[in-house]
Design a protein that fits this description.
This protein is α/β, with parallel strands linked by helices. The chain is built from seven helices and 27 strands. The relative contact order is 0.08.
Length: 455
């Protein structure tokens, strides 16, 4: 049995290492066995009492795990230091802490204890938070019990709190020789397994350890408007849904068969997946079934926006602000003569020319390129005898729109402007009366230049 189990676990770990990100550090896996030693565990099961069967099989499992690298074990027991009655709801203790090769210590402690007390599961879970050493690791609790909470605690609330704080991953709960109603009390605590028969417990313990140590395959289908998984080449971040911690970063890709690539992820976490499209899309509460390939679909239909401006040295660094339609929040800033992907939809553009160009209701369609081309600017060369105060205004239907403020420390200045009619209003600094204001009107044509003299 031990040789077979050891080979089974080593094979699983090998698969984990092959599928892991080559640049990602391998975190240690810390498994805390939370073991029920209350008096009810002395009930007869099949070949022996529940306690003796569980102790024997857990010892075999611990012995097999000693050959697995990067795995640390600890043992917390409850219901074993006080007799019942009376009820003592503080009867929980970390008997073998994490650190070093403590497999032998765990087996020795399992031989020494005698069931005697009650079942303070919620308190034991809460105290377990202190059992894990500081530092990054995969912290896992495996609760083995034949009874539900007897001390008015709420194991579900405690488990949720520990997961939300990022202290543990979703625990495993193995119920020994229990009724169907027992499962309802523990499904909210963690991944529940019902070992109603002695023979089932051996198999379930193997399954739990395998799930605790091995990653599971999944793929993310980025769906277009036709619900086909055609979108790709975009970053994705997997967050822990409870703690908010970043678990994985991937760049989505298609494999050699043209299908979304297979990823290896921890099956014990619940994920929030953010796809870094423009704007981002996300999917919450993504669960992965251990040992089963999971497919997740996320709507991410995209098209391209191409901003075009040819042959303009004056606007070589020209950019446009992209916003969702009717929104004032900046979504993205895109340089001209570049192509960017956006989710399909309607957008507003503010092009940072002089004067600025505002384009509303620009549509991005699935797998199509929307091209926005603006005319080349023209140049106005402004000269004055004296520096002074002035601005350039766009003439728009008998209204002057402020466009550019002249540098009051210069007498000569060149400004790139979009085609249109303009007017300069200027007063020299040494003229202290408004009557000396100078006005000049001029027209800008695309790609041409004009001179304006302010004297």
């Amino acid at each position: 049995m031990k040789k077979w189990l050891c080979l089974f676990l080593i094979s699983g770990i090998t698969g984990l290492e092959i599928g892991a990100q080559p640049t990602a550090p391998v975190l240690p896996t810390r498994i805390l066995f939370l073991f029920d030693a209350s008096q009810s565990m002395m009930a007869q099961w099949q070949s022996n009492s529940r306690f003796e069967v569980a102790r024997m099989l857990l010892s075999e499992m611990v012995d097999s795990l000693k050959s697995i690298e990067n795995v640390e074990l600890a043992l917390r027991i409850y219901g074993h230091t006080k007799n019942f009655p009376p009820q003592d709801c503080d009867d929980t203790r970390l008997e073998v802490p994490f650190g070093g090769d403590n497999n032998r210590s765990i087996k020795q402690k399992l031989r020494e204890i005698k069931p005697s007390g009650t079942t303070p599961i919620a308190l034991s879970l809460m105290e377990s938070a202190k059992d894990f050493p500081p530092g990054p690791s995969r912290n896992i609790i495996i609760l083995i019990t034949d009874g539900i909470e007897e001390c008015k605690g709420d194991p579900c609330a405690v488990s949720y709190q520990l997961q939300r704080k990022g202290i543990i991953l979703k625990p495993f709960v193995i119920g020994l020789g229990v009724t169907k109603d027992f499962a309802k009390a523990f499904e909210c605590v963690g991944n529940y397994f019902d070992a109603s028969q002695e023979t089932q417990f051996r198999h379930i313990l193997n399954v739990v350890i395998s799930q605790a140590l091995n990653n599971t395959s999944m793929q993310v289908n980025l769906l277009d408007v036709y619900q086909r998984p055609t979108e790709t080449n975009v970053g994705m971040t997997f967050y822990d849904m409870y703690s908010g911690a970043i678990r994985y970063n991937f760049v989505h890709t298609m494999n050699t068969k043209g299908n979304p690539d297979t990823l290896k992820v921890d099956p014990l976490a619940i994920y929030r997946i953010v796809v870094h499209t423009i704007p981002p899309v996300s999917k919450d509460s993504v669960t992965v079934t251990p040992g089963k390939h999971t497919v997740v679909g996320i709507d991410a239909p995209q098209g391209d926006l191409y901003l075009k401006l040819e042959g303009s040295n004056e606007y070589k660094n020209l950019q446009a602000i992209i916003r969702k339609s009717k929104s004032t929040a900046t979504l993205h800033v895109q340089p001209f003569n570049s192509k960017e992907r956006f989710l399909t939809g309607i957008y507003d553009l503010e092009i940072l020319t002089t004067p600025r160009i505002n384009l509303a209701d620009v549509e991005i369609a699935q797998s199509k390129t929307t091209t926005i081309e603006i005319p080349k600017p023209g140049l106005v060369h402004i000269s004055a005898n004296n520096n002074g105060y002035g601005s350039i205004y766009l003439e728009d239907n008998n209204e002057l729109i402020g466009t550019y403020r002249l540098n009051d420390n210069l007498t000569r200045e060149s400004v790139a402007l979009q085609p249109g009619r303009y007017r300069i209003i200027f007063r020299p600094k040494n003229s202290k009366e408004s009557i000396y204001t100078i006005e000049r009107s001029f027209r800008i044509a695309s790609g041409s230049s004009t001179a304006v003299q302010l004297y």
